[in-house]
Amino acid sequence: MHERRRAVAVGLAAAGIIWLWQFLTVHYNYGGDWTALFRIGPIASLPPFAASEPHYMFPASDSFDGQWYHLMAHDPFMRRGAASVIDTPVFRYRRILVSLLAWMLALGRDAWIDRAYLAVILAFVFLGAFWMARVAAHRGVHPAWGLAFAIMPGTICSADSMTVDVALAALIAGFAWYAYTGSRWKLAIVLMCAALTREVAFPLIGGYALFLLWKRRFADAAAAAASALPALLWFAFLMRHTASLPVRDYMSWIPMSGWLNRVLHPTVILDYAALAGILWTFAAAARMTWTRRIVDEVAGVYSLGLFFAFLSGDQIWDSVGYGAGRVLTPFLLITAIAELSGGPWLALGPILLVDVRLSLDLAPQIAGVARGLLH
Questions:
Q1: Is the separation of the CB atoms in 105 and 119 below 8 Å?
Q2: Is the pTM higher than 0.90?
Q3: What are the beta bridge partners of residue 21?
Q4: Residues 233-264 pLDDT 10s
């Protein structure tokens, strides 16, 4: 019980740190307008529920994905016109969990959606740090290392622009914890939620189910595979309401081609810091393979590593911090968790390198907060 209380304290501290940063950047950079966190740009022909809401507006070049998930939170079942203005709406709507939870927390009331969405993001920060603290304690590491969840690239980007990456990162930490403790039904719920958060969860579920089959844990394998069913049913619902279910071409037949292309064509010199951190993570996964390290959470390292090795696409790799670092957070996180017992600083090294590059993307905000605090 004492260990659980410490993990709760770590989770609350992580959520508090993220909220404090959001408060400071909203106060000093956006004139106190919290809707700036959704990074909403000029959108033509907004549906009535959105057109009537005042929001902080960014130029089109500075808007980001959070604006789409915000619209989805107002219209999770595509009945009010949000899908008509969202870019690739079915692609976005596959990632329904965060928006749906915000809608449920707000009881469907438009006036409460923005605050409910922020609460959901902070709740996932809490859960991610809580689960990471519990894993750390059982690996003989101080639970305070759960605070590292607050510096995961996906966590930082979600805090900055309300993307869904923090939710998937938290659920990856939950997967590691419940795979370690052997709680089948809790693990199934975590995997089910992950599949509804972002499609990256499917390689994790498939790889883990195959691992369980190999270990002849057939009931566990069936439970893991079944966790994907709600997401598949949701995808079927989307297909019934649209002409097709588009799949963006983000994969390559050449392993590490996206990483290699950025090595050869860096945008800024700090790209190399993030690229080194990503390569370090792949090297750690390769070492686990070489040493035949086989435990439950390492199955996630292998399956996610294989998936991300073939991940390409300019939209991901053009920005190594905000793009690749954010998208690869599940792999960075599960590998760091698997490496914790070998030395926490060594495990977090790749993430810190990615954060170095990410700090450049956030430099204008950091400078605005610094100026505000010093005056």
A1: yes
A2: yes
A3: none
A4: 999 999 887 655 455 567 778 889 999 999 99
Give how far the C-alpha of residue 11 lies from the chain's centroid of Cα atoms, to the nearest Å.
17
> What residue type is assigned to position 197 of the chain?
T
Q: Choose among 164, 139, 126, 145: nearest CA to 297.
A: 139
Query: From CA 42, how far away is CA 45, in angstroms rounded?
Result: 10
Taking alpha carbons only, the member of 125, 70, 55 closest to residue 100 is 70
Count Cβ atoms within 10 A of the Cβ of residue 5 and give its class: 0-12 exposed, 13-18 middle, 19 or more buried.
Answer: exposed
Read off the amino acid at residue 135: V
CA 247 to chain centre: 19
Q: Give the pair of three-digit tokens for residue 203.
A: 């390689």
Positive or negative: CA dihedral 174, 179, 180, 184: positive
**Nearest Cα to Cα of residue 323 among 254, 267, 253, 252:** 267
Q: How distant, in Å, are the alpha carbons of 20, 189, 332 from that of 248? A: 36, 27, 23
Q: What is the DSSP letter of 243?
A: S
Q: What are phi and psi of 40, to 5 degrees?
A: -85, 130
- DSSP-derived letter for residue 252 is -
Which tokens belong to 246?
Answer: 């588009």
Query: Each residue of 357-371: pLDDT tens digit?
Result: 999 999 999 999 999
Query: How many residues are present in the chain?
Result: 375
